[in-house]
Amino acid sequence: GAEVVFSVDCTKLKEHFLPGKREFDRIYFNFPHCGRKAGVVKNRQLLAGFFHSCAQVLAQEGEIHVALCNGQGGTPADQPRREWHNSWQIVALAAGAGFILSRVHPFEAETIDGYKCTGYRSQDKSFCVEGALNHIFTRSTAPLCFTPMSCQTQLGSQKVSFQVPQVLVDKFNRGFLEVNSSHPVRTIKEKLSAGLSQAFPLQSLSSCLPLLHQGHPGGVCHSNIFWITPSPGEAPSTENVSQGLADAVLCSHFGQDTDENGQEGCPIPKQFYLRPSLLPHAQAIIKKRAFSPGALQVLCGPVFRKCRITPHSTPVFHEMLVVLAVSRGTENSCVQMLVDSIETTLNSLHQGASGVKPSISLQDATSFGAELNDFAAFEQQLGEIQHFLCAGTDPEPSGSCVGVIRTAPDELKSHELVVVLASLNLDLLAMLLCGISDWRMLWTSDRRFLRQFPEGELRLFKSFSLYPPSYVHDVSFWVPDGEEFDEVAFHTLARRVSGETVVSIQLRDNFQQPGTGRRSLCYRVTFQSCDRALGCREAAEMQLHFREEIQQHLGVTLR
Fold it and tell me: At the topology level of CATH, where does 471-558 sit?
């Protein structure tokens, strides 16, 4: 009952089928080859044309199955694996047409009904399929379109509109913590809150907090902050803003400017910025004495920090801040109870996700020997830390910092009570518990991610994009004389220009020219997407745009 069509050009599939018959659920191409002694270049061209043709006739949820001989594909699934330049580079070719590799499995001819391996045409020579692999491709989500976004937030009695920084456009209003969300970040927040409430009475849990703060967070590096300018006509008066923030934010560490001798001068202009921490909100609770001794107050929400590009450095993540007031002299035992409760909850969650028990350790800040990740390093800027909360699994049980514990500053303490503040990075915990290696996957718009996490359940994540291709580009430039190069701003520009497809930036060379003293830097920029198709041409265009942007915004001279 099947319709058989002959003389089909695999690079022009659309021409062979009527419009009503172009939505194929499966397209199979077993052992494609140009014929005769065609080299890898011609066969790559064949595959590239085939994938572009498939994009016109494949159903939205359809699959493309391509079987290749052992070693041809150029992926880690091939054993042995050919050198990249000597392979057919199938994943990169598919990415150029908007497809990602979702599964790979051995090609087993005996399991395919009616399939017969006949060997080479007109030759008494068998065709070897031993070690052959079937590559299964699916459609990728479309590239993100970063159209400008305005956001409105409440500051006291006034509503203020502002332009969302372009690098954060796809991360605003995602609703990960909302009641109807099945995102693993919300599941961890709910389970941790329930676990902590068994050890301490839970006084309140709040996740509706102002996004904007005013002034400058004391001790925090200026380049780590997302500074915000209210939209024209929306900037409230200084007096009204100050009154409005008195109850909502209480985060300005600006007082008055001082001259070089430390004498007070003119007031520093008030500025706005996206909250880098929920700590000011906790400090407002403490100042009001709006807590019950021995009871927990839990604050949750996204926070925003400019940072360098690494797999675990997140410009936005969900913070869970626990506030606990205890009697003076009992703070150490209460901190241990708090950590034990967190460890018990995480252990139960991890066993449900993968059966591997995580290691949770409380390490004293004064003797912490491991290298600080970006989360911990930024927390140090916010104030003194007593303990780091580290989590990991075998083979690295010591793990990395996922939380910090501190006590309230001296001016907020009382004679009878000590307030303990525990800050947890819910995104890093989700990565640990679900086996997610790249933070960007938490923010993917691909529905295949959330399908793996039914509401209230954590599972070991299985990537739907295998062996994504990477593209390496170098950029070299002269730094302006007498200026310190802002590497965080450099990384932030790379995030914005690439739509978070830059996975690594490494300093390759730092050269100072004899005589003139001019300094030149050379960086290696690696483009790779964890969840969508990224072709070599698109990466090259991003690199060119990146070069233009750093010249315009950082004042460097390209080489």
Answer: Alpha-Beta Plaits (3.30.70)
